[in-house]
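Worked example

This section walks through a single chain of length 274. The input is the sequence exactly as stored; nothing has been trimmed or padded.
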Amino acid sequence: MKKIPFILLALTFAFSTCKKETTPTAPAPCSIVYSAWSCCSNNLLTRTYSLSSTNCTDIPPADSLQRDCVMPKEVTIGSQVWTATNLDVSTYRNGDSIPHVQDATTWATLTTGAWCYYENKTANGTTYSKLYNWFAVNDPRGLAPNGYHIPIGPEWDILRAYLGGWDAGKKIKSTTGWRKGMTLGNQPYYLDGNGSNSSCFAALPGGHLWSNGDYPDPNFHQEAIGNGTSWWTSTPYPNGSLHALAILISYEDSGIGSAYYSKLDGCYVRCIKD
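Given that input, the structure is written out below as tokens.
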């Protein structure tokens, strides 16, 4: 009988006892997929979520699943549907908070979104709503409620044209709350700064906030509370400027004007339906 060399036996044993090593499969990455917000009867916006993998162990925090419901009142003017009141939200569309900034020095150095009440008075917020800087308007998380957007300049032009052009401002002003007018010499110049509100837009003279955090003097500026109001558009000034287009109306006349303000100014916001 032929002998098998010892070295061959050893190799045969080694191969027979070796197990094939396999790289373990990495678990699928976990991600959370949210549904759109929807409004429930309890006046909360809610949304559901699904997990992309059975290996998911993370659960979203409770406050990401519901927040205050914002269901705007609407007014139809011609072919457009506008919100009937100024925007009054403290979160972006995805639920993230918008900082409430009351310090003038801080406001003047912002590069991100913020809001405040006129003169930091809650009572003014109750009447006129919130002032926002343009960084909040332009934030990719969305300032307008779902189904609405912040109008561009030409959408205000459509409103102005539908309401007759030169006296459109009078038609969107509320019938009370505006400064009563002014005199030129001894003659009355404007007897009444209020409007007819024939459009039901119900604009109130909520004022304006300068980029340095100061408020206009009501004795000298049409932008002051009681004298006028301004709304942001989503239209920036061309060529990357630090300014954006705003719409303004005043007790002094019946028109709807526009101006480029600093993006750090505080204006109100009206939304238009998508």
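What to look for: Residues 4-18, 62-68 have pLDDT under 50 and may be disordered.
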